Amino acid sequence: MVLKARMSLKKASRLRFTDRDLDFLIECRSPGVSDKLRFNDMDIRSPKGFCEAVDDEFRLGFYKRIADICLFMLGIFPDAVEEKFRYPHSGKIRPKAVGEMRVSPEEYAKEGRKFYKLAAEHYSAEELELADVFWALHENFDHAKKPLNFISDHYLRYQRKFLFA
Asked: Are both 88 and 138 inside the same structural domain?
């Protein structure tokens, strides 16, 4: 999947990414110059950085993608989200490793709601007749993850660990 967005190379050069972030390609163009930047498609930190850097007209896709990642992670991989944030048996919060993204399940839900709201409020959402869908997902985020939890528990239970290995 390739997203095309206008971003000045000056803005793009301020973004800092690690090798782990180089899974998703975005084409950035400046008059007479073309450059390519990559970021991890399953990490909300990378698209948030791009979202701030691109022009407003291109943000709807990023808002939706960030919210979708949050919903997907909490719906299909809730155990993995919890295990990355807390120790399984004690429930204590894990120390943060340098450069590692550690997001709690509550933060994923908060960010998912926030970005579905931003998507619903974006002028393009109304033009594309998606505003009502985004508002519904914003208001019913916890209910939206339940069908994904069901699918994950009943159909993917033992295969989840191997899906993105």
From this structure: yes
* 30/107 same-domain check: no
Residues 114 and 71 in one domain: yes
Structure-block tokens of residue 108: 């994923």
Residues 70 and 26 in one domain: no
Q: What is the pTM of this model?
A: 0.73
Segment holding 121, helix H or strand E:
helix 105-121
* Residue 96: pLDDT band with limits 50, 70, 90: confident
pLDDT (tens digit per residue) in 98-127: 766 778 899 999 999 999 999 999 999 999
What is the identity of the amino acid at 83? E
Tell me which residue of 64, 66, 108, 67 sits closest to 84, measured CA to CA: 108
76 contact partners, CB below 8 Å, separation of at least 6 = 148, 151, 152, 156, 160
Compute the distance between CA of residue 42 and CA of residue 44 in angstroms, rounded to an integer.
Answer: 7
